[in-house]
Amino acid sequence: MLDWFKELSRAERKGFYGAFLGHAVDVFDFMIYSFLISTLLAQWGMSKSMAGAIVTWTLVSSLVGAVGAGLLADRFGRVRVLRWTIIVFAVSCFLCGIANSPEQLMVFRMMQGLGFGGESSLCMVLVTELIKNPAHRGKYSGFTASSYSFGWGGAAIAYAITFSLFEPETAWRVCFFLGILPALVVVYLRRNLEEPEVFLKSRAERAAEGRVSAMADLARVFRRPLLRKTLLCSLLSGGMLGAYYAIATWLPTFLKTERGLSVFGTSSYLAVTILGSLVGYVAGAYATDRWGRRLTYIAFAAGAFVMAMIYMVIPVSNTSMLFLGFPLGVLMQGVFSGIGATISESYPSAVRATGYGVSYNLGRVIGSFFPLAVGWLNSGRTSLALAIAMVAGVGYAVVIVSAALLPETSGIDLNQAGGGDDQEDPAAAQAPVAARPA
Questions:
Q1: Which residues are CB-contacts of 177 (< 8 A; sequence separation ≥ 6)?
Q2: Residue 4 covered by a domain
Q3: Could you tell me which residue, 44 or 4, shows the higher pLDDT?
Q4: How does pLDDT run across 28-45, given as a tens digit for each residue?
Q5: Number of structural domains, the chain?
């Protein structure tokens, strides 16, 4: 199963390790807040709507960070800008740990969103461009995306250990501080990382043609033929992110308040779901190269919708829920495996980082309203379980429709990705350069 990984060059492996850990650190610090919501509700007396709004505005600011980082990365390099984003992120983690009100925490989380948006987007662009064999691009980006499970799992472990060692009023601050040290490790890992050849080639061609303004690059992703891809990729990522945010943001609160689980009980249930998510990333990574991007999205999204309804709505015992968490994690996260490859394959090299930053993070903005919608529905309108299931279901429906409308990009040459200025479908621009593995 890992023969493809053994074929990677030293540069491809270095890029993978740096992107994997960087993304995991981002996810740790983003997801740790979901574990702290119930504590902050008690500590500060803030409403659930405010708790959801903090997530929403963090994700809105991630769009600004991703677009800015993408524009800079298309000009100065992916690796250089990634060094900047992780530093912004680490500083914001520290500030979140010293916040004294919901309003302060929202401001600091928005600062964190600037680094989070740039970091997570450029990580996927970097690894997608580094891999030379397109037959393995889905697996390469999918395994990088699996770092989400490690970051999420790290947050669950940190939550359980920290709250067992400290009182709640101190423990939540420590949880935010814990993200600083691994961020510094990422800076060390990336110190000698080189830019992808496909980017260097594109930058040289742009230099020969004459300088193009950053605003022209940004405008290009909103013009034909890229406009349709930008809209569909944004909806695709928005649907899967929104469904995930609706479930993951409120799942700890659901388990603790509606199922009556303790801190350790909540962590153990989440551990099963997180383990399933890791398996889901791996399964999705292989499926996206074997089945193609489109079919993988549709199959995993449909399955995740069914499992979310079973987990949240159908009355089952706590023991049954423990085991149901595994397939929920598999399907909920497996749908993400191909997103890095799909978006990167939809844009030409000259605006790939910009296009990725715009599409994926417009999706984040769309998805950011899903946890807010859950909080709104649960404020005297319906149960938390039903609110989560309803909102997640909308997200997965958006994924299925968007995937059906997007062109299949599996196997495309990144030098030809985006289809140029007169080609709507990159897959139609040329025959795939490599057949999918049997």
A1: 93, 94, 97
A2: no
A3: 44
A4: 888 888 889 889 988 898
A5: 1
| CATH code of residue 254 | 1.20.1250.20
Closest CA to 299 of 284, 314, 313, 278: 284
Q: Which of 235, 195, 171 has its CA nearest to residue 364?
A: 235
- Six-digit token pair at 201? 């080639």
Q: Backbone phi, then psi, for 338, in 5-degree steps?
A: -95, 0
Instruction: State the Cα–Cα distance between residues 229 and 137, nearest whole angstrom.
Output: 19
Could you tell me if residue 381 is inside a domain? Answer: yes
Q: Cα–Cα distances in Å, from 155 out to 27, 114, 175, 234?
A: 8, 20, 8, 27
Q: Which of 308, 310, 320, 305 is nearest to 269 (CA)?
A: 320
- Calpha distance 196→149 (Å, rounded): 26
Distance CA 369, CA 59 (A): 9
Q: Which amino acid is at 422?
A: D
Report the alpha-carbon distance of residue 438 to residue 36 in Å, rounded: 45
**DSSP per-residue codes, 39-81:** HHHHHH---HHHHHHHHHHHHHHHHHHHHHHHHHHHHH-HHHH
Mean of pLDDT over the chain: 82
CA-closest candidate to residue 104, choices 181, 176, 162, 24: 176
Using alpha carbons, select from 293, 287, 289 the residue that is nearest to residue 437. 289
Helix (H, G, I), strand (E, B) or coil at 338: coil
210 found inside a domain: no
How many Å apart are CA 107 and CA 113, to the nearest integer?
Answer: 10
Q: How far does the chain reach from its first CA to its final CA, in angstroms?
A: 12
**Amino acid found at 435:** A
Domain coverage including residue 181? 11-191+217-428
- Dump pLDDT digits (tens) for 270-305: 788 888 988 998 899 889 888 989 999 999 999 999
Q: Is residue 209 part of a domain?
A: no
